[in-house]
Amino acid sequence: MAHRGSSLLLVGAMVLGASGAAAQDMRVNTIQDIFRHLRTCWRPPSPARARPLDITVVVSFNRAGNILGHPRITYESAEASDDDRLQYRIAVMETLQRCTPLPFTDAMAGAAAGRPFAIQFRNRKTSPDKTSPPTQERRA
Q1: pTM of the model
Q2: Mean pLDDT score of the chain, rounded to an integer?
Q3: Residue 110: helix, strand or coil by DSSP?
Q4: Neighbouring residues of 6: CB distance < 8 A, sequence distance ≥ 6
Q5: What are residue 29's phi and psi, to 5 degrees?
């Protein structure tokens, strides 16, 4: 049951390159399992279509593991072009489509239902190049 009047925002980072094939077959029983499961579906745009960027989406699920309401993009890398942002927004929505409904266990279904999750899709180097100027965040 969701708590009214207070909002719980859970944040998880999805780092590319992690193996997730086994996670597709497992039940989602923890918050970390949610991020592991979604990671198995993440297909970023090819570098030929869009420059790498970081993007965050806030999404909630119902007890059956389906998306509740509309996912909302809350962050995108500031230096991304409009086309880069569009390509990554499409990739994020395709990921959510491929991966839902999430196979929640009964306990996780009750705990996660209605709660917003901020899911970070990180596709850039974690440390900026020493010769390039610092980047600024852009809130969507």
Answers
A1: 0.72
A2: 80
A3: helix
A4: none
A5: -120, -10
Shortest CA distance to 95 belongs to which of 67, 128, 75? 67
What was the pLDDT predicted at 123? 78
Residue of 44, 41, 18, 14 lying closest to 100 (CA atoms): 41
Residues 44 and 16 sit within 8 Å (Cβ to Cβ): yes
pLDDT, tens digit (0-9, with 9 covering 90-100), for 59-94: 999 999 999 999 999 999 999 999 999 999 999 999
Q: What pLDDT is recorded for position 122?
A: 87
Domain 10-125: give its CATH code.
3.30.1150
Q: Where are the domains of the chain?
A: 10-125
- β-strand partners of 137: 77
**Chain center to CA of 72:** 10
Rg (CA), the chain: 16
Half-sphere exposure for 80 (CA within 13 Å, toward CB): 26
